Amino acid sequence: MSDSVVIIPTYNEKENIENIIRAVFGLEKAFDILIVDDGSPDGTAGIVKRLQQQEFSDRLFIVERSGKQGLGTAYIRGFKWSLEQGYGFVFEMDADFSHNPNDLLKLYAACAEQGADVAIGSRYCNGVNVVNWPLGRVLMSYFASVYVRLITGMNIKDTTAGFKCYRRKVLETLELDKIHFKGYAFQIEMKFTAYKCGFKLAEVPIIFVNRVLGTSKMNSSIFGEALFGVLQLKWSSFFRKYPKPGQD
Question: Is this structure's pTM higher than 0.85?
Answer without folding.
Answer: yes
